[in-house]
Design goal:
It contains 14 helices and 16 strands. The chain is of the alpha/beta class. It folds into two domains: 152 residues, Aspartate Aminotransferase, domain 1; 254 residues, Aspartate Aminotransferase, domain 2 (3-Layer(aba) Sandwich), CATH 3.40.640.10. Helix 7 packs parallel to helix 8 and helix 12 packs parallel to helix 14.
């Protein structure tokens, strides 16, 4: 059965960031529990990816399971247009308790990319509502990644990102160089000179500036100084530009702070969260904004925010998100993230001396080995099966974002596997 399943999958099921006829078969998963994935052939893999950074508590968690089970008995879904329900309202209230008090409005979306689309629409519609309709551009950092939909693609890195193929199709935005000063390194105010020059030259057409605070995720796993975020916040205020913080990957403790913005003591005008919002159970994201932005839009000539996903506010997703937030707010995550950071830091340090390694970096519960040549995915998959560890490198980056509940022994195995990959993947 598994051979037939894998064969059909390889020839007919189109997976993310892959050919319709991939050279390698995808591994067939039978079940998942804790931090382990069980394959159809009986092989067991430690999931060092937390299901693309979302399964903070691992798999098959009894509290999250119960939340879904209880909710499905009442209502699996109902449209959110003209109707509302307790799971969604409670989730919005719970989210607002965890963000700066200036943020008072929540728009529920069904994916991180959609949350970014909503954020961009909010920014454009706000500027239009206050009589600044000429502000129709967005600025972004090179090296950034914000999603795969049309608007989100337009603010991803236009040259080295995953979407350069579509550069003539997506809207043309403005970009500034990726922050060069690493997190924790000595700060130099001149590092913001280029960004200030961009604001001075383009502020009359600039609606918003979008960034991934502190951590650039899928665009390169780059960790940069908090002072950049502070400086860009000040420039946005000076030139009347909205600041959008894309925390799809970083929210809920991944960097060692509840929000990466908290590390910089910066309050964005618009905030996007997702991925780990439901603990990896169901697709859900949210775009939060301040009363200033929400009331500005609502007081304009076109007061309705023109976006409405069919599955917006899905009760099952909202119910499990509420349970996930309760688990996180039990207070264990800071110690868990600190412990992961320590193990990754110690375990990956050896790779700094490898011939094929150009950089090793760790921030919060994120560990990265950057290699000189792109990884060979066939070699990677063979190593994963041999070591019993699931990793999914891309380009020249071998990285891990493990579940918070992963123990030291498993983390050591993860770092050992990453180092083996760094020696063999090219």
């Amino acid at each position: 059965m598994s051979e037939n399943l894998a064969d059909f999958d390889q020839h007919h099921v189109w997976h993310p960031y892959s050919s319709a006829t991939p050279p390698l078969p995808n591994l067939v998963v039978r079940s998942a529990s804790g931090v382990r994935i069980q394959l159809e052939d009986g092989c067991e893999l430690i999931d060092a990816m937390a299901s693309w950074w979302s399964a903070l508590h691992g798999y098959n968690h009894p509290v999250l399971n119960q939340a879904v089970t209880d909710q499905v008995a009442d209502m699996s879904h109902v449209m959110f247009g003209g109707l509302t329900h307790e799971p969604a309202v409670t989730l919005c209230a719970n989210l607002l308790k965890t963000v700066p008090p200036d943020m008072q409005h929540v728009f529920l979306a069904d994916s991180g990319s959609v949350a970014v689309e909503v954020a961009l629409k909010m920014a454009f519609q706000y500027q239009l509502a206050i009589g600044q309709g000429q502000r129709s551009k967005v600025a972004a950092l090179r090296g950034g990644y914000h999603g795969d939909t049309l608007g989100a693609m337009s603010v991803c890195d236009p040259d080295a990102g995953m979407h350069q193929l579509f550069s003539d199709y997506v809207p043309r935005q403005l970009f500034v160089d990726r922050p060069s000063i690493r997190y924790g390194d000595a700060w130099d105010d001149q590092a913001l000179d280029g960004i200030r020059a961009m604001f001075e030259a383009n502020h009359s057409e600039l609606a918003a500036f979008i960034l991934e605070p502190i951590v650039q995720g899928a665009g390169g796993m780059w960790f940069y100084a908090r002072e950049y975020v502070q400086g860009i916040r000040e420039l946005c205020d000076e030139f009347g530009v909205l600041l959008i913080a894309d925390e799809i990957a970083t929210a809920f403790g991944r960097t060692g702070h509840w929000l990466a913005c908290d590390d910089s003591a910066v309050v964005p005008d618009i905030l996007c969260v997702g991925k780990a919002l439901t603990g990896g159970y169901l697709s859900l994201a949210a775009t939060l904004t301040t009363s200033r932005v929400a009331e500005g839009i609502s007081g304009g000539q076109n007061p309705e925010l023109m976006h409405g996903p069919t599955f917006m506010g899905n009760p099952l997703a909202c119910a499990v998100a509420n349970a996930n937030l309760v688990l996180l707010q039990s207070g264990e995550w800071p110690a868990q993230v600190a412990a992961i950071h320590s193990v990754l830091k110690e375990g990956l340090a050896e790779a700094e001396g490898f011939a094929n390694v150009t950089d090793v970096r760790v921030h919060g519960a994120i560990g990265v080995i950057e290699t000189a040549q792109p990884v060979d995915m066939k070699v990677v998959q063979d190593i994963c099966l041999d070591e019993g560890v699931w990793l999914r490198p891309f380009g020249r980056l071998i990285y891990t974002m493990p579940p918070y509940v992963m123990g030291v022994e498993d983390l050591v195995r993860v770092t050992s596997t990453m180092k083996r990959m760094a020696k063999q993947v090219y």
